[in-house]
Amino acid sequence: MSFSPPPPVQLTFEDVTPEYAAFVEKFEPKKTTDDCYTPDNIYATVRDWACARYCIDTASIVRPFWPGNDYERFDYPDDCFVLDNPPFSLISKIVRFYMRHGVRFLLFAPALSLFTAPESGANYLCCGITITYANGAKVNTGFITSEGEYLVETVPGLYRALKAADDENRRKKTKKLRKYSMPDCVATAARLGGLSIYGEAFRLRREDAVYLKKLDCGANLFGGAWLLSERAAAEHAAAERAAAERAAAERAAAERAVLSDRERAMQQALGQ
After folding, report:
1. Other CB atoms within 10 A of residue 84 CB
2. pLDDT tier at 206 (50, 70, 90 boundaries)?
């Protein structure tokens, strides 16, 4: 199949001078999810997984999505496979276009609106991975593909591989902070606020507390905390246990959504 490529654009002198580039940069729009450029190791992880799962030759992979390019006029070779991260705002239109023209593909897509273009015949991979993209945006990501035999499929192996790659990227950018769980004798405002939410009264006398900003082990206490006497710590622990039981009871008592007769009839007709 072949779609005519866009006509070449001739650059002017102003387009290529650093001064002009610095000037126009001030007026560029803020980054959106359409600017979520894929880190190299994230792309390589998806590529390797897809090639193994769908028997794809890496030489056939094309990436038609870059700033200023028109994917509809891209020259798609007959045996090509599109593996790319498209503008998320156009994902429905792109999926329909590829399915209509018989272009094989696997596309990054926002997980919260993954089931787009349901009439197109495409399949959906629910990965559950939040990827940190090159512009710093963190997006819960899934994938839409022309491949496979299942309408919807979970991909735990791909999740594990992507999480390892994303963790590697974040380690390079941020200093790793140690995580601490607080003992019962340390009462923060957040922990005490949780007691109020679940109806547990707790009162602390001045003689039973001393104010701390940081523990000697290195744990920072954001906003400060109170070090409790043994008696107050025991009361605090009892209140937290009771609050946890109330929270569990509320979750168990939450009203469950039910199917209507129409929806049950639809369900019974499935798989026939």
Report:
1. 19
2. very high
* Distance from C-alpha of 130 to C-alpha of 111, rounded to nearest angstrom: 9
Write phi, then psi, for 207 (nearest 5 degrees).
-70, -10
CA distance 131 to 254: 31
Burial class from Cβ neighbours inside 10 Å (0-12, 13-18, 19+) for residue 99 reads middle
One-letter amino acid of 21: A
pLDDT tens per residue, range 152-171: 999 999 999 999 999 999 88
For 115-124, b/e burial (b = at least 16 CB within 10 A) is: ebbeebebbb
What span, in angstroms and rounded, lies between the C-alpha atoms of 134 and 42?
10
Question: Most distant CA pair in the chain: distance in Å?
Answer: 81
Higher per-residue confidence, 81 vs 252: 81
Residue type at position 75: D
Which sequence spans correspond to the domains of the chain? 13-173, 186-252
Q: What is the 3-state secondary structure (H, E, C) of 56-73?
A: CCHHHEECCCCCCCCHHH
Q: Which sign, positive or negative, has the C-alpha torsion 227, 232, 238, 242?
A: negative
- Strand blocks (E) in the chain: 61-62, 81-84, 104-110, 123-132, 138-145, 152-154, 186-188, 209-214, 220-228
Both tokens of residue 199?
């109806």
Q: Is the pLDDT of residue 16 over 60?
A: no
